Amino acid sequence: MTICISVQNVSKRYGNDFALKDVSLQLNRGEILGFLGPNGAGKTTLIKILATLLTKDSGRITIFGYDLDRHEKEIRYLFGYVGQDTERSAYARLSTVENLQFFGALRGLSTRKVNEQIEKLATYFDFNEHINKQFMQLSGGQKQTVIIMRALLHDPPLAYLDEPTKGLDPVAAKRLRSFLKHYAYQEGKSLLLTSHIMSEVEEMATRVALIHRGEIAVTGTPQELKAAVGVNEFVELQKNELTTTMTDRILRLEPVLFSAERDSQWISFGVNDLFDGTEAIVQTLRQENVRTMMRHHTVSLEDAFLHHVGVIEDRFE
């Protein structure tokens, strides 16, 4: 297995506050590593360090065997970068194709190669009708698509994608996810994907690193992280009709393994069999003549984050 990125004990401070604290991770060839955490958790800081846009305070990073501190120039040819600064990262009065041709030339690509890549990417992203529009005339989602195309122009073996579907409509976002999975799993590229969208990370990532307040709590496959929660399903009840006594009684039911509070309005009861668990809970509520709203969900990465980190913050949305 080829190691593309090795991050060892990396820390970064802004003033007295840690943005990253003793972070270690590894990205292998042909995989997508999802970097999952709420806004402000340190995801973008790590991406910018890897992209040579920020310097770390301590630790060691190697990318395809190159030391980041000594081989910045060589490393910059090996990756594509999609950041969150779409509006400022292209020339507003140039057309899409002119922007891509310009940045391709900066990469040292021949005119022929650039035009071949533009045609390939524009066709895939169904972008041909916008290719001659000025960048400033594009919608936010269209601008984001251009930035993604620009990052992949030189067909890099490695790509950093910081919230890549930001601003995309559902159809464009789905097309992008499909392309990136093909890019990694069929073409053998390596992707580091940051996101606060749980479902997006779960759909795409080979492995997921959960980060909170600059520290990585755990890394594993989505299946491993969810399995660690210890249940398959959650039955949720609205809390305003539940007394402490009622909650304790539900927790003593055989199908119910434990409870968790994902937000202030609902309490979740973990069960492995949804039918048996729901039946037992409903029967108990009826015995006490309690009526409350009920819903259920299959265990998710959000549950895994709560299990491993111990807190869910509203800044995931």
Structure description:
Helices cover 35% and strands 27% of the residues. It has 317 residues and is α/β, with parallel strands linked by helices. The strands form three sheets. It has a six-stranded mixed sheet with strand order 6-7-8-3-9-10, sandwiched between helices. It has a four-stranded antiparallel sheet with strand order 2-1-4-5. The chain has a four-stranded antiparallel sheet with strand order 12-13-11-14. A hairpin with a 2-residue loop joins β9 (207-212) and β10. α3 (96-106) crosses α4. The longest helix has 16 residues, at 170-185. The two termini are 35 Å apart. The model has no long low-confidence stretch (mean pLDDT 92).
Which structural traits does this protein have?
elongated; 4-stranded antiparallel sheet; alpha/beta; 6-stranded mixed sheet
Brief synopsis:
This protein is of the alpha/beta class.
Structural class: alpha/beta
Largest sheet: 6 strands, mixed
- Number of helical stretches of at least 4 residues: 11
Helix content: 25-40%
**How many β-strand runs?**
14
* End-to-end distance: 35 Å
Mean pLDDT: 92
- Low-confidence runs of at least 5 consecutive residues: none
User: What is the radius of gyration computed over CA atoms, rounded to a whole number of angstroms?
Assistant: 23 Å
Which sequence of SSEs, written as H and E, runs from N to C?
Answer: EEEHEEHEHHHEHEHEEHEHEEHEH
Overall shape: it is elongated
